[in-house]
Hints:
Blueprint: E1 5-8, E2 17-22, E3 33-37, H1 50-54, E4 68-69, E5 78-79, H2 82-99, E6 105-109, H3 115-129, E7 134-136, H4 143-153, E8 170-174, H5 178-181, H6 183-195, E9 201-205, H7 211-214, E10 218-220, H8 227-240, H9 246-252, E11 253-254, H10 256-263, H11 268-275, H12 279-291, E12 295-299, H13 301-304, H14 309-323, E13 332-335, H15 342-348, E14 354-355, E15 359-360, H16 364-374, H17 389-397, E16 403-407, H18 411-414, H19 418-426, E17 431-435, E18 448-451, E19 460-463, E20 468-472, H20 485-495, H21 507-516, H22 530-536, E21 539-540, E22 573-574, E23 593-598, H23 614-619, E24 624-627, H24 629-634, E25 642-646, E26 651-658, E27 666-670, E28 703-709, H25 723-728
Parallel strand pairs: 6-7, 6-16, 8-9, 8-12, 9-10, 11-22, 12-13, 16-17, 17-18, 23-27, 24-26
Antiparallel strand pairs: 1-2, 2-3, 4-5, 4-18, 14-15, 19-20, 20-21, 23-28, 25-26, 25-28
Helix pairs in contact: 3-15, 3-20, 3-21, 4-14, 8-11, 8-12, 8-14, 17-19
This protein binds iron/sulfur cluster (SF4).
Amino acid sequence: MVQSSKTLCPYCGVGCGLEVLPDTKPSTDAEAWLVRGDRAHPSSQGMVCVKGATIAEALDKNRLLYPMMRDRLDDPFRRVSWDEALTAICDRLRTALDTQGPDAICMYGSGQLQTEDYYTAQKLLKGCLGTNNFDANSRLCMSSAVAAYIQSFGSDGPPCCYADLEETDCAFLIGTNTAECHPIVYNRLRKYHRKKKGKVKLIVVDPRRTQTAQDADLHLQIRPGTDITLLNGIAHILLKKRWIDAVFIDDCTQGFRDYVNVIQHYPPEHVAEVCGISVADLEETARCWGLSKNVLSLWSMGINQSSEGTAKARTLINLHLMTGQIGRAGAGPFSLTGQPNAMGGREAGGLAHILPGYRLVKNPDHRREVEAAWGLPAGSIAPTPGLAAWDMMVALEQQQVGLMWIAATNPAVSVPDVERTKAALRRSPFTVYQDAYYPTETADFAHVLLPAAQWGEKTGVMTNSERTVTLCPAFRDRPGEARADWEIFAEVGRRLGFEQQFAFQTAAAVYREFVSLTAGRVCDMTGLSHDRLAAEGPIQWPCPQHETDTTASDKHDKRLYENLIFPTANGRANFASFHEKGLAERPDPSYPFVLTTGRLYGHWHTQTRTGRIEKTRNLHPEPFLEMHPIDAQHFAMQTGDWVEVRSRRGFVRLRVKVTQYIRKGVLFVPMHWGFLWADQAECNALTNAECCPSSLQPELKACAVQVIPLPADALPATTTEHPRRTAALR
Ligand code: SF4
């Protein structure tokens, strides 16, 4: 009897359950695995998208098998032993500490890491090395949602669950192409919407007529950057019509009066004009918010990746507070996380301003609690947040970094203003790059390569967008000399003298220590352990110690704040009062278009996996530029013609796709192509690194660009002609 393993899809934050079993009839001699949806997983109920279904095909392609080193970036790598690599890293860490101080050390991690990896890494940096310079690519993805939850409710933590998708009367989706980016969440919502035809409203706010927008009862195709005006305009109508919950506002919130002073400046005619929509559509949206029994809002990068991302998310939360749409089935603000374990990272202290258990670096009590738990002297954790993702690039640029450590992410493609980013990475005196794959674009900037075990080769947990925790067991041997990320961090900690802090023998022991730090917190997981998750399957938090004997129904579909008491000092949620500032970089006569960026259904991030899988590669073989027909007519261009798109920072060359599904004056480029997969097509060559002052999340979603038609003799190579690319496909 062939044994199957139950695990979690390691791509997006939906967190679908997978069942993996050995393929007994592989087409080649290579080890092969069959992957199907796990029907017992509460979040996905057996559903799976193309990425999850094909994940096993990338397991053995282009793996980094051994540690490698080089002295200079233009030298070739040479194979070294683990001992040699770790000795070099520890020597460099000691030198940086002695000569520059702890803040010369930076680590940039990833929502792909498991919770045990995150926890061990940030313990090493924040507790033992004395710097809070541990940040993750989640900063680029959902840190605005984190900041908004903390400021509005007193704590991070999405309050809703996926069952709300099937219990709402009105789903309000803003800044999220859920159909392509969170496909199984969308499957659940779409099925329900169709089943309840006419009774459940689906409203989508997006400058593009995305697949999600095409299913909507109402699509508000707003101008990019006008979200706050729209949301304040909805609030204006709600107040005028008295479609508010005055009892909830009085009993459970604060700051409403200041908010009223702001929204009075957003009458419907003004809002419709600024947003580029009709007054009737705006009023219909407000009517749905005001008269629906339960309103659920979903958002993701279209709100978060903005220089006012926190203000946008808080302004959306305001609508829930003024209508009392929170704390019950089918209602509430629900941010969808991008990555499979971005949520676990937030829980484990995986950003530069937080500590495990939803604690804050700035809070002295929180620092003391963590120091005591780690057996470290008081004052070991620095009192100020460390460098966030973009600030690390600036610090590299200014040569303030002695050692840069990058794990499970590909910043040479994914960070904004990527030519500046690459120049900054080139200035690093010593970069450690820890990844499962080679080549990647970021490997070009490394002095040391460490082979990491990936999904299926190490045991650990991940938390999805609805707070469901799933154990992901190892089910195959590690290739070459690959090691689990947490094992690498722990070994470095021990070599630096922190034997007691890194005495872990197993991932289960790491997890045990981590959950002990969640006791009494909003994200209490003290009732969880590897053993329990293995025996009982996925469980949603909060799950305190006394809930270890819960029945099946108590393990899922939980909501936060059902008692309408929020974890602020006085138990009240906070209204926020923001006027819109607009795009950080607005179009002007020199750069007349707004460029927006996003994901496609079949690809994941920078294609480190999906570029190596035939089916997903064939789904989206090359990058493109979406342009409205009127704009295309201006340039006398048709679909398939080549253009150069320039911003103030760089350029790309792409084929045009003429489509009515985008607003006139707005262009769209997918974010998946780095220089390994296409020539001159990196959308982040164009993007702007201007960050939200609260969340430090960059405005990846919008920048000003110009378009120049390209003559035939200036065309870049196609996606398969590059020798490195050919090697990467083997
Ligand atoms: S929706 Fe996300 S988690 Fe689910 S199978 Fe697809 S990529 Fe994986």
